[in-house]
Structures are given as C-alpha cells and as structure tokens.
Amino acid sequence: MDFFHAHQPQHYLVLAALLFALGAAGVVLRRNAIIVLMSIELMLNAVNLTFLAFSRFPLVREPPTGSFLSGHAAVFFVIATAAAEAAVGLAIIIAVFRSRTSVNVDEFDTLKL
Amino acid sequence: MEVSWLQLVPLLPLIGAAICGLCGKWLPKAWLYAVALVSVLLSFLIGLSAFVRLSEETQLFHQLSFNWFSAGALRVEMAFSFDRLSGALTLVVTGVGFLIHVYSVGYIDEDPGYWRYFAYLNLFVAAMLTLVLGDNLVAMFVGWEGVGLCSYLLIGYWFTDEEKAYAGRKAFVVNRIGDLGFLIGIFILYRQTGTVNIAQINSAALPIAVATMAALCLFIGATGKSAQLPLYVWLPDAMAGPTPVSALIHAATMVTAGVYMVARLSHLYVSAPGILALVATVGVLTALWAALIGTSQNDIKKVLAYSTVSQLGFMFIGGGGGAFFAGTMHLITHAFFKACLFLCSGAVIHGLHGEQDMTRMGGLRRYMPSTRWTFLIATIAITGILPISGFFSKDEILAQALHTRAYSFLTLTPGGSTHLTWLGPVIYIVGSFAAFLTSFYMWRCYFLTFSGEYRGPEGLHPHESPAVMTWPLWILAALSVVGLVLGLPQAWVHGSALQGWTWEHFSEGLFAMPRGGWPAEFTPWQGYGIALLVGWAGWACSYALYYKRGLEGDEVLSRDVPRLRRTLANKFYVDEFYGWAIVRPLWAFARGLWRVFDAWVIDGLFVNGIPALVAWIGALARRFQNGDVQRYAAVTALGVAALLYVFLVRG
C-alpha cells in the first residue's frame, strides 16, 4: 500500500518520531535551559501523538476491556505531568538564574563529584 | 588397658608451662619454681606408678584423649600409649627433667627472664612426653615439632646476643630439613597402610620397596633431630643456650627422639634391611666423625656436644644392627651420664663466672669437689674404663653390631638370602676406634678442667655451686653407676633377681626381630676385654699427654700432626663447606628472588600493578562523568537507540 495515498497510522507515527527526535536533539544540543525544557515538552507531545494514533488505529479488532479510549486517558496524564514538570523546571531555572545570572546549561556541571 | 589418667603425664607440664608463661612475670619467684617443679614431679610420679603397674597381663596403658581430626578415611586421634619402652622413656624424660629443673633453680635464678625459661622448659617436657607417648605418628610429630620449637626458643634464650639467636635459627632450619623427611615418611606409610597408628603400622606387612622408602624418609627426620651426619651441625652450635638446657634437650632427651623413633618402628625398619645398614653406617661414621672433632675442641661445652653427637651415633649403630634394645639402653644410660656431665660443666661455668674455655680452667678439683667427683664418675661411665653403665650399654651395641644378622636381603635372590657379612665387623672395628677416641677426649676434658694448676685470671676465685645444683649432680652420678644393672649380660644374671632389671630381658618382645634372626650366642668376656682395653688405651694416651703437662699436650699434638690437628680444631671445615655449598648459593638465590621476583613481579606487577590498572580504568570512566546533564542525556538517547535497533530491527 502506497505511503502517500491512504489515510494510515504510519503518517502519525512518523510525525511523532520526527517530533521526538527534534525534541531529543534540542535537549542534547541546545544551551539555553528554557529551550531544553521546551524540547522536553516537544518529546512528551510526540509520545502523546503516538498514543492518540494507536487509539484511532488499534492493532486488534476488539478492545480488550471496554473501549480504545485508554490512549486518550494516558495523554491527559502525560499533559498533567508535563505541566507539573514545566512548573518545577521553570522554578529551578529561576532559582539557578538568581545565583548564577545565567541559564546556560554548560555551566551547570555540579552533578559530578 | 584403657585408662583415663594417662593424658595427665604430658598435660601437667603443659599446664605448668601455661602458668609460667602467662602469669610468671607477676608470680612470686618461689611460687613459679613450685609450679614448674611440681608439675614435672607429678608427671614423674604418675609415670612411675604406671610403670610399676605394668605386668604380664597389662602390657600397655592406652588413653584416647580426643579425636583430633578426620578427613576421608584418615582419622587422627590424640591418643597416648604407655608400654615398657615409652614408659621407660617417660621416666627418663620426667626424672632427668625434674633434676634439671631443680638445678636450673640455682643456675638461672639471677637471670631476669627466669619465668620465660621455666615456661619453655615445662613446655619442652610436655612436648617430649607427647612425642614419647603418642600412639600414632601424627601425635608423635606434634611432639617432634614441639621439642624442636622449644629447642629453638631455649638456644636463643639470650636472644639479644646476635650469635645465640643465629644458633637458634640454625638449629630450627637444619631440623626443618629432617622434619620434611619425617613428614614424607608419614605420608608414604599412610598411603600404603591407611593408618598412622604406630602399632598398626608395625603389624602391617609392607612391600620392601615401600618399607625402604618410608624408613629412609623417617631416618632423614631422625638424622635432623638426633644430629647425625650430615645434619649434625646444629647441635654443637646449640650450646649457645643455658647449660641446663644443653643437658636436658641437647644431650639427655630431645636428641634421642630419632633413636626412639627408630626403635618404636622397629618392625618397619627390620623389613627394610638396606636402611638398617644405612642407619648403622651413618651411626658409626657419625660416632667416629664427632669423636675426632671432639679431641681438638677447647670449649668444654663443645667437647660435650660433639661427644653427644658421637654417642647418638652409637645408639644408631645399635638400632641399625637390629639390636634396638641395645640402642635404647644406651639412650637411657647416656641420658644419665651425659646430663650429669653437662650439669657439671654448667657448675664449672657458673663457678668461673661464665668461662667456658678449658685453656683457662685447670685445677678445679680443689675448688669444686662435688662437681669434680660427679664429673669423674660420669666420665668413667662414658669412657667405660670401669664397668659401669656406659661400659655395658656401649659394649652391648658394638657386640651386637659385630654379630648382627640384620642385613639379610631375603627378596633380592629368590629362595636364598644375601647377607652383608662384612659390614658388622667393619662397624665393630670403627666403632671401637670411636670408643677409644671417646675415652681420649673425655679424659682430656677431665684433665684440662680439674687436674693440674688453675690457669684462669688472677683474682677470679672459682667457687662450688649451691646445694640445689650439686644434689642433682650426685643423683645423676648415682644413676650413672646404678644404670649398669640395665646392661648386665644375660649369661651373668640368668635366673637371679637382677635379671628382671636388665634392659635386654625387660624389653623382650618390644622390638622386632631382625630378618636374619638374633645373633648366635656369644660370650661376653672377649668383647668386654677388648672394650676395657680400648677404654684404658684412650685414658692412657690422654693421661700421658694432658695429666702432667696440661695444655702442653695440645702443643705436642699441634707440633707432631699440625695439619690433622688444625683440621679437627676447625671441625673438618664442615660449617665452611655447608656455607659455601648450600648457604651461600641459597643466599644468592634468595637475593635473586628478592631483586627479580619480589621487586618486579610481586611489587611491580601485583602490589603496584593492580592499583595502577584500577586507577587507569577510573581515569577513563571519569571522563564520562563530567556533570553535564546534556551529555548524559545524549548517551542515554544513544543507548536507547541502540537497544531499539537490537530489539526491533535485529530481533
């Protein structure tokens, strides 16, 4: 079946993978801590997209228990967690900025012994 | 008969040693002496009461103290057996040991380490009793090593003196060579018989090859402990210890352990006639060798030390001739007169404030009469110029060697037997010559010490020892005389009350019969005549050289036979030879090991190499932990990608 002509789950999955890769690249490569946080959000949303894709195009004919809406439920949890994470992350960044006057993650190497 | 009190015999001195060693420093002196002496005395009394209760019905007291260890089929028990042989030895060890303890009270009293001394002495008695009473070879080996340890501790008793500490080490190391042989002998016997019990080994029928190997290895052990060629070199140096120790350990008891072991395993030895011949040959060579050296020593204790080596050689002639009773008889009589001689020399040294050189003695008969008389009696006993104990036991050995039928090699020629007929007479002749030398050097020692004029420095007044030291001398001298009963020939005492006291009759059935059977009956008169003649000849030579002229006698010898005399005075250069042939190469080898193996391999590769490797790996790993969260995340992402690839694409 041709990839470009039918409405298929692969399209969503490829998009999610691209988003995830973009996010991961942002986390690894960018120096600004706020951008890093945003990249994490991007990765989380890529995961959300796969959840929704599999909810729309289930791999089995009959749902094991009830409906296929459990994908949607997981997405709500992820969004809630992401909001909490963004709040905590921004608070940390502000605290660090106050002590270092910088949000450049290259300078945050106190994790090593 | 199984009894419950036998273990007390070695245990009491052991407890005494523990008390003396652990709290001796804080105990009052009198208490310490009481503990040390009473523990040995009680041991002696228990031994004595057991000894008189031995009879035709109860030939043996036995006690199993505890199972020491077992592995597979091997079971080693700490068990003691008390028969006529080990009983007699027990009495000698504890009896002579007690006298020497008493004497030591006078001798060591002023030394600050007296408590240590008595702890060692008691420990020695305990170890020696374990050796004698142990009913299996492993228990015997415990005692064997124990006496070696005590010997080392007591030779190096004055350990701040480098030379004395060295003598202790030398004794220990030389003994260790022999002990290895002893151990291998035990292993061979266990492998063949499946037991280490002496009685079972004696009753086992061993193939001649195994018996020969085992007997040889055990005899190597005996040459170490009993100071025979070629391992005798430690004994003369052992004289660095306190003189009572020389009397107890290095003359009367420990050094006879090898003789005792050969006699104890007589059945093993008679089934290896080649080794019997070797034992006798080594014995006679040692007797001659040490006697030759003894003629030219000036240190009174060295003379007695070489005399001990020589007399031990005689004992091995007895054992090697299959006449185990003669060897053990000489062991007992020798314990009496040699302990007496050593204690006398100790009294002399004590009376002269540490002087050991006979060239600075002389004329001491006026100053120390008790010492002089007891030394004279013991000298008569060892030289055999009058028929007291040493005369009979030594002559019994030589007579048995002459007539022995022990060297029959039954298996070499099937159906017949090869008998080494010439060996016995050769041993007899060489042994008689050694006896002549014995008489010569012992009388030289006596004359130089007690006759003539005092040659010591002015102002040093020799004095007699206190009674606590002279009484043991008199008792030992009396035993040296009374000991003659042990050796009376059967022909003389047959049927009389004395017969039960003679060692030959008393020890009947204890030892194995040589393969060729007992020697044919021989008349004692002829042998005794020769023995007396030999003894008197030695006395006469010594008298002519030393009685009137004192030290000039040595000068005469140095003038007439300078090279021989110099060689003998330097002990055949054996120490030098060993130093050149063994010690120096060993040192070089050890130095090489130290420089190459220890410094490079052990220190370089292992001690420093392993930490260096860890540090290197750590340095490598440290580069990954730089505290940069992004780097961590990148690595994690790469890892996840790799896992996904493996599981999804390859899997």
What is the fold's blueprint, element by element?
The complex is a heterodimer of chains A (113) and B (651).
Chain A: H1 9-29, H2 33-56, H3 70-100
Chain B: H1 8-23, H2 29-53, E1 61-71, E2 74-82, H3 84-108, H4 114-133, H5 137-155, H6 162-193, H7 198-203, H8 208-225, H9 234-237, H10 243-252, H11 257-264, H12 266-270, H13 273-294, H14 300-320, H15 324-351, H16 369-383, H17 389-403, E3 408-409, E4 418-419, H18 423-450, H19 467-482, H20 484-487, H21 490-493, H22 503-506, H23 524-547, H24 552-560, H25 562-569, H26 574-607, H27 609-622, H28 629-650
Antiparallel strand pairs in B: 1-2, 3-4
Helix pairs in contact in B: 1-2, 1-4, 2-3, 2-4, 3-4, 3-10, 3-15, 3-19, 4-5, 5-6, 5-10, 6-8, 8-11, 8-13, 10-15, 11-15, 13-14, 13-18, 14-15, 14-17, 14-18, 15-16, 15-17, 15-19, 16-18, 16-19, 17-18, 17-23, 18-23, 24-25
Describe the protein's architecture and organization:
The complex is a heterodimer of chains A (113) and B (651). Chain A has helices at residues 9-29, 33-56, 70-100. Chain A is an all-alpha fold and 113 residues long. Chain A has one domain (9-104): Orthogonal Bundle (Helix Hairpins), CATH 1.10.287. With 651 residues, chain B is mostly helical. Chain B has three domains: 1-135, no CATH class; 136-569, no CATH class; 580-650, no CATH class. Helix content of chain B is 70%, strand content 4%. Chain B contains 28 helices and four strands. Chain B has helices spanning 8-23, 29-53, 84-108, 114-133, 137-155, 162-193, 198-203, 208-225, 234-237, 243-252, 257-264, 266-270, 273-294, 300-320, 324-351, 369-383, 389-403, 423-450, 467-482, 484-487, 490-493, 503-506, 524-547, 552-560, 562-569, 574-607, 609-622, 629-650; strands spanning 61-71, 74-82, 408-409, 418-419. Chain B has a two-stranded antiparallel sheet. In chain B, strands 3-4 form a two-stranded antiparallel ribbon. In chain B, a hairpin with an 8-residue loop joins strand 3 and strand 4. Chain B is globular. The model of chain B has no long low-confidence stretch (mean pLDDT 88). At the A-B interface, helix 1 of A face helix 28 of B.
